Amino acid sequence: SAFKSRRCLVMASGFYEWRKLDAKNKQPYYISLTNGAPMPMAGLWEVWKLPEGETVESCTIITHTANDMMEPLHDRMPVILTHALVDPWLDPAINDPAAIQPMLEHFPADEMQAWPVSKDVGNVRNQGERLIEAITVGA
Asked: Which portions of the chain are predicted below pLDDT 70?
């Protein structure tokens, strides 16, 4: 039912993905849009109650197979909505799954970019713009 009536956007400037280098090593990459615009990712939200009565609000980002830009990094990626799909995705009057499903298309690979970043992104205590600065792999 969330797919039919509780769709949302999860906005981000970009996201990280870890590319597996070998059995023991991974390299994080920062992925963003080439035009620098915020990235509208397709999400679903839900409100539910725990058995103890506490209300929980949650959301999720929908994923699908990787496009050509993401495929070398990972086999999946978030559904990023094109500008033309943002309003229809949020429109509560559109509630037929057959009308919603086609919105989950691949975002154009040539409108995305990725670069390696410091492994410091793997620690939540690390913050700041330095975490999206490009590095030379192996640095």
From this structure: 138-139
